[in-house]
Amino acid sequence: MATTSRKRYERLRTGFANSEQARSVTRRFVTNILVCEETDGTLSVDTNMIVFQGRRGQSEHFFVACREDRIRQFEVEWKVIERKGVF
Fold first, then answer.
1. pLDDT tens digits, one per residue of 31-63
2. In a domain, 9, yes or no
3. Domain coverage including residue 76
4. Which helix or strand (DSSP H or E) is residue 22 part of?
5. Can you give the pTM of this predicted structure?
6. Any residues with CB less than 8 A from the CB of 62 and at least 6 apart, and which?
7. Dihedral in degrees, nearest 10, Cα atoms 57, 63, 64, 65
8. CB atoms within 10 A of CB 32
9. 68: nearest Cα among 28, 27, 42, 29
């Protein structure tokens, strides 16, 4: 464990580590889900999203997006066969 902690410490000191200073809080809101069955057996799923990211005492960002997915059932699971997103 000490070796792992030491390696992490050294990596963080390089400035190239993937971490945030100050740590952010991220919230995702997915709303207005509309599901329609298409003639070929696939489902068309439209959703709207808001993503909030904030750092205590620093900055706040809101991202708004919509997404259009087409999904199809393969045996016992559903899979996305097409995805479009607009930010």
1. 999 999 998 889 999 999 999 999 877 889 999
2. no
3. 25-86
4. none
5. 0.62
6. 50, 51, 52
7. -150
8. 9
9. 42
Confirm whether 48 is domain-assigned: yes
pLDDT of residue 81: 95
Residue type (1 letter), 82 = E
Cα angle 48, 32, 84; round to 5? 35
- The answer to the question of residue 3 being in a domain is no
Residue 33 lies in a domain: yes
Could you give the CA distance from residue 38 to residue 41 in angstroms, rounded to a whole number?
6
**Residues 21, 1: Cα–Cα separation, whole Å:** 24
Domain at 58, CATH number: 3.10.450.50
Total domains in the fold of the chain: 1
Query: What band does 80 get if pLDDT is binned at 50, 70 and 90?
Result: very high
